[in-house]
Amino acid sequence: MRRLLSGMAFLASHLVAFTVFASSGDFQLYQLGNPSVVPEANENFRIFANQLGAAVSSFNLSPPETLGHSAFNFAFEYSAVSVDTSAAVWPREGAAQGRKPPVDLLLIPALHVRKGLPFSFEVGTRVSYLQFSRMTAATVELKWALNEGFFYFPDLGVRGFATRMLGTRDFGLTTAGFDIGLGKQFALGGMLTLTPYAGWNPLFVDMTSRIIDFAPARTLEQAQTQPLADTDAFTHVALLSNRSNRFYFGLRLIGYVVEVGAEVSYTKTYGDREVLAFSGKLGLDF
């Protein structure tokens, strides 16, 4: 009984903390400044777009080999992502309201489902959540293994993907890209397999801005008298003009049907910003 009560108290305390910080990771673009007044506002918006796009697309967590034509994989994934969170380029809602998330990292839990297809193809979908916010992201992907399990040669695979961010208030974000990966599976004692892998991922980011009110504190009378005063939209961050390069390295361990993985990735984004992600997964391979 004591353990049950302790567990309930632990859960309740975390639910309260989640409620307090539930929206402290959302964004308020007016903090970047009105682009018709602040010269660097559009530049900061572009830096923000590329960082956020890299963050929500910053993990692969699977080697280049495919599952096989009849197999499924279900996994829970978690990523901790470091970005430049200075106020000039990261307009977090919590900063404006005197609140901030408990950690200065982007924490992104996700559910990932993959299905093997004939001829060394594989499809997958991932739904991820930007913790302490109202935002989620949906990803679809297609992988093709050009070589897998052929003698002593490393596995070689190509994966294409697209991600759309949902629950955003003032902007729309889409990312797309492909990665080329190399990996090699090693047997451990006849019961386990260990697969180190690495790859390169060109990533493209597209972000559009809605009309932003850059004076949200004005009175209702002021807003009704001059509804368009102090409003503007940021310049479109175009997909083909905003490419970043991501490099990643990971390890996957499989025992029977249980899969455990870890991955680290590094992305150099626009404005000389760096996005560093540490990710892990726990899955079932059928």
Using only CA atoms, what is the Rg?
21 Å
Number of strands: 13
Encode the helix/strand succession as letters: HHEHEEEEEEEEHEEEE
Distance between the termini: 37 Å
Give the fraction of residues assigned to helices: 10-25%
Main sheet overview: 10 strands, antiparallel, barrel
The dominant shape is: elongated
* Total number of distinct structural domains: 1
Report the portion of residues in β strands: over 45%
Text of the CATH class = Mainly Beta
In spatial order, strands of the major sheet run 1-2-3-4-5-6-8-11-12-13
Unreliable stretches, pLDDT < 50, 5 or more residues?
1-22
What is the fold named in CATH at topology level? Lipocalin
Average pLDDT figure: 88
CATH architecture: Beta Barrel
Structural class call reads alpha+beta
Task: Note the total helix count.
Answer: 4
Question: What does the model show?
Answer:
- The chain has helices spanning 2-20, 41-56, 93-96, 220-225, and strands at residues 72-82, 106-117, 121-129, 136-147, 155-166, 171-183, 186-188, 192-209, 212-213, 231-232, 243-255, 258-269, 273-285.
- It has 286 residues and is an alpha+beta fold.
- It has one domain: Lipocalin (Beta Barrel), CATH 2.40.128.
- The longest helix is centred in the N-terminal third of the chain and has 19 residues, at 2-20.
